[in-house]
């Protein structure tokens, strides 16, 4: 059958599939979406129509005089993922999924698909194949659930920070010099000047803590690292917060409350998505456990039988050893000063360690933060100790002449957190269009 | 007096200045912020402490035995914008601003400033001087108000779109080829590949309308245009929306409701900020007026005596002529197809014009959008008509093989809207750290 395309015309959705139920028996509705399945069994023709909220069965029996003949003819010709609008009547039927079906009075085909789709829901495809066909991949129920959870997460974080006197800010992603003095930056051709993509909102959010006191931002940042792990991307969405008139301990206690708020919101608003994902989110007790770096090293050396020296970074395989002893969300505080960036404040009583922390979920690092240096002279000294040139930080240092309060904050990886929430095995699953050293498309 | 710096220690703010009032006479509070003014009049020493929410007067009378001697000595030595914490008692006093003052029991100096600050609140400084000293500039009341309004605007938009079944998305800002085929892109050195900064979320949001149906994003985009106007920047925050199973008219009616929702939220939550800014926000009646492009050209030619041909773009000076006849928010619909990008759908009954629109506020263009082409063959034809190579759009075109619904959307300039809301005369005032061809710092 040669199926013509029709225009949307005046036809508009009255409902999502999730709005419908057997209780509305006899009600006329207009639904729209994609053909997920299509079957003809003798005198019975039906298809599953899916939309962003779920799916329902559209059934045309040959002997049903309510269904126009052209619709009876059309249904067997519908291809998988064709785009259709259906005007129909709800009919309660215990045998149908959800206890009802839609009897079609009008079916419009709005668009068709290629003959052989490269992905089929429910079969296992390589992640790269999925990403190469991302639009189709994302239409599958599991992926719809991941990004619904992300949406609720975004709103819950913003709600928490708004309620707790934070101002949302937007800082530039094009920067004139290398923040943090990092070498792993993407250069940009900016007219006739040198510029880079920002690897972190760090310096800008610090400056803004001297204006709005408490600030937050959810925005992309960029890392030109040739990492090929399941936890690293070149374009990363981060949540940055910074608090004026505060130190590390204010950040620790504020952020753990933010996390609990977000987990509660997801449990409340995403019950069906969590079911789809097979996830149970336990809301952790407050306060989170706080281990010092030294305690962790000690644990690794003794109970973990892991070879590591005080002062070394804790690598992922070390965290996997820790996994036996330290589960769920916990903080590791007081990292060696030498291992931390110039802007991290050393502890007053022991300058070898610093007012710094990581937030872990098991072996996965979710956030990093601490008290910042707020004294200009000391900051310049710290820059020099890190072999950085204070002249390159002129604009940032200027802010310390204008009245910089003590401040502290953190940077938190949205994508990594989304893998924790949804059980995704690879961060590329938790980003709509991931960017890696090898992937610039789609 | 040599004033030592003290650490924050255990001292934490109990209140913002805006929380205090004469009714709390006798209450002990801890406040913190910046010294905005400092006066000594005979036996009376006082300073104005400002924080993110406002300001209040801290008063030490020589003959008040409650004020320790060291505090009496310290106050006259405080410099402008020094960072202080004050533990004190509220004392109702009709002569003080707001009807009360804080009698200091303890004053800690947390940080000092340079001797001669480059900006003083209430004096007129060049915008470039202000931007060069942005942290100091932003601390002034008017600027605090602008970005508080922005925060409320962000939340109100997201609330509206969440309530109206939109999913928040995050699309990549690093792209492998030139979207929209534009030439005004910033190139990036992406490992050993060619890449660019995204000039719009257009193609990605279109793709996502075939997954989540209704999507929105607030994110930066990048324009390498050497424009030097009060309305253009190189890094622009935009709100992008896209609606599946919809056309231009769905977008027009949805977005005008969104704007009304936002204006109502700002009126409700930012009364004091609007007062500071001298702004009254009238909530426009719905629906917004919809002029066709042809009507506007006609009006310009006849009533406006303005020389313009049908088919030409409407320049800013033409809009300024229109300003006499068309005020506030209005739509201009049905632009010439030739003037619009390849993805805009021509009208069915007259292909010379298209299902496109601009949203204007007087002479200022705030948004641009329309119905998109959703038929793959026609989209390829449109690309060719625009002298673009379909091969460069391979990844985007693929999405049209997977079931693309009819869809429509718009892109809306957050910064421009913020100038309308706050009365800012230049878009650089409405962005924390603006980026122009000449400005990459701070």
Task: Give a nutshell description of this structure.
Chain A has about 450 residues and is of the alpha+beta class. The first copy, chain A, has twelve helices and 16 strands. The radius of gyration of chain A is 27 Å and the shape is elongated.
Question: Key features?
Answer:
homodimer; 442 residues; alpha+beta; OB fold (Dihydrolipoamide Acetyltransferase, E2P); BirA Bifunctional Protein, domain 2; 2 domains; eight-stranded mixed β-sheet; five-stranded antiparallel β-sheet; 12 helices; 16 strands
Write the layout of secondary structure elements.
The structure is a homodimer of 442-residue chains.
Chain A: E1 28-41, E2 44-51, E3 54-61, H1 69-74, E4 83-92, E5 100-111, H2 127-132, H3 134-138, H4 141-163, E6 167-168, E7 174-175, E8 187-190, E9 193-197, H5 202-209, E10 214-222, E11 235-244, H6 248-269, H7 271-277, E12 289-292, H8 293-301, H9 316-322, E13 329-333, E14 356-361, E15 364-371, H10 376-385, H11 394-398, E16 407-413, H12 414-422
Parallel strand pairs in A: 6-10, 12-13
Antiparallel strand pairs in A: 1-2, 1-4, 2-3, 4-5, 7-9, 8-9, 10-11, 11-16, 13-14, 14-15, 15-16
Helix pairs in contact in A: 4-6, 4-7
């Amino acid at each position: 059958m040669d199926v013509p395309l029709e225009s949307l015309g005046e036809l508009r959705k009255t409902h999502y599939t999730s709005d419908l139920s057997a209780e509305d028996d006899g009600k006329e509705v207009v639904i729209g979406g994609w053909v997920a399945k299509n079957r003809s069994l003798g005198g019975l023709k039906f298809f599953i129509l899916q939309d962003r909220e779920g799916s329902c069965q559209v059934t045309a029996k040959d002997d049903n005089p309510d269904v126009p003949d052209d619709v009876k003819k059309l249904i067997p010709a519908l291809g998988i993922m064709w785009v259709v609008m259906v005007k129909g009547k709800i009919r309660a039927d215990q045998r149908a999924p959800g206890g009802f079906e839609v009897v079609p009075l009008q079916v419009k085909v709005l668009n068709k698909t290629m003959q052989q789709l490269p992905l089929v829901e429910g079969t296992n495809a390589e992640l790269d194949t999925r990403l190469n066909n991302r639009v189709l991949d994302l239409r599958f129920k599991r992926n719809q659930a991941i990004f619904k959870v992300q949406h609720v997460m975004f709103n819950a974080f913003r709600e928490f920070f708004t309620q707790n006197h934070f101002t949302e800010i937007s800082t530039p992603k094009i920067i004139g010099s290398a923040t943090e003095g990092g070498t792993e930056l993407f250069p940009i051709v900016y007219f006739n000047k040198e510029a880079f993509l920002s690897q972190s909102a760090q310096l800008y959010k610090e400056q803004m803590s001297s204006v709005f006191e408490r600030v937050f931002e959810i925005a992309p940042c960029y890392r030109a690292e040739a990492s090929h792990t399941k936890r690293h991307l070149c374009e990363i969405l981060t949540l940055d917060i910074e608090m004026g008139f505060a130190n590390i301990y204010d950040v620790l206690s504020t952020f753990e409350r933010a996390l609990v708020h977000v987990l509660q919101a997801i449990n409340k608003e995403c019950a069906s998505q969590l079911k789809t994902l097979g996830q149970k989110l336990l809301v952790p007790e407050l306060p989170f456990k706080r281990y010092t770096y030294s305690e962790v090293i000690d644990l690794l050396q003794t109970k973990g039988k892991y070879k590591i020296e005080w002062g070394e970074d804790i690598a992922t395989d070390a965290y996997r050893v820790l996994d036996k002893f330290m589960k769920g969300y916990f903080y590791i505080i007081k990292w060696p000063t030498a291992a931390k960036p110039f802007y991290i404040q050393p502890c007053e009583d022991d300058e070898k360690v610093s007012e710094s922390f990581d937030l872990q979920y098991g072996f996965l690092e979710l956030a990093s933060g601490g008290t910042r240096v707020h004294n200009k002279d000391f900051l310049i000294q710290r820059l020099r100790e890190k072999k950085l040139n204070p002249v390159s930080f002129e604009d940032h240092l200027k802010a310390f002449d204008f009245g910089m309060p003590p401040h502290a904050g953190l940077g938190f990886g949205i994508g990594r957190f989304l893998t924790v929430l949804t059980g995704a095995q690879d961060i590329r699953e938790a980003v709509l269009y991931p960017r890696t050293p090898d992937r610039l498309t789609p």
